[in-house]
Amino acid sequence: MEVIGQRISAIKASLPEGVTLVAVSKFHPAEAIMQAYGSGHRIFGESRATELVNKAKELPDDIQWHFIGHLQTNKVRAVMPYVTCIHSIDSERLLRLVNTEAERIGRTVDVLLQVHVACEETKFGFTPEEFECLTSSGILSELSAVRVRGVMGMASNVDDNDRIAADFRLIKNMYDKLVEVLESSDGAPCDTISMGMSHDYRLAIECGSNMVRIGTTIFGEREY
């Protein structure tokens, strides 16, 4: 198990300055997370509400839990006391509900708008057209308990680096448009581009990512 701490330390040492690592711990046991924790890492990503809540109750309080999977509206209330950042805001309805629930418990929560540029129709997120409608609607300035910090996206799952890079550049372009919309607002800066996983994070960084979500390279294959 000590190898997990060694892997995470090696990855963090290799990342350029300013790039944040989210260690994707979904489907892995608390013992594995504690190995990464022992190396000094504190930011972990989960994709299931019940799993995040159970781990948050069991593991140290200074862990920052990032929710990176599709968040069902009926699970928002459960994760809200524990989550630091939600990467997967993929609809206006979910955005408004997260704001309502955060306000209800007296919290302010960071979120990322999930964008969908990949060729797989099964992936979630705002298409470029939907993203344009959302950012021009004025809703982002109405949120009282949510800080929109940037975007999250995934590239197409293909063996074509040119296509993957094009997807990443489109995500970066959508982020730039979001910055333009939010630059005159008060509060936390819009400063996060979450893209890149174990197999493509180096290319994602080249295309502008400053937050990568890495699981398999750290923890090995998932334990279902």
Short description:
Helix content is 40%, strand content 20%. The chain is of the alpha/beta class. It has an 8-stranded parallel beta sheet.
Walk me through what this model shows.
It holds the Pfam family Ala_racemase_N. With 224 residues, the chain is α/β, with parallel strands linked by helices. The protein has a single domain (2-219), classed as TIM Barrel (Alpha-Beta Barrel). Helices cover 40% and strands 20% of the residues. It contains 9 helices and 8 strands. Strands 7-6-5-4-3-2-1-8 form an 8-stranded parallel beta sheet. α2 (30-38) links the parallel β1 and β2. The two termini are 18 Å apart.
List the helices and strands and how they pair.
Layout lengths: L1 H13 L5 E5 L5 H9 L4 E4 L2 H10 L5 E4 L8 H4 L3 E7 L2 H13 L4 E8 L11 H9 L9 E9 L6 H22 L9 E3 L6 H6 L4 E4 L1 H4 L5
Parallel strand pairs: 1-2, 1-8, 2-3, 3-4, 4-5, 5-6, 6-7
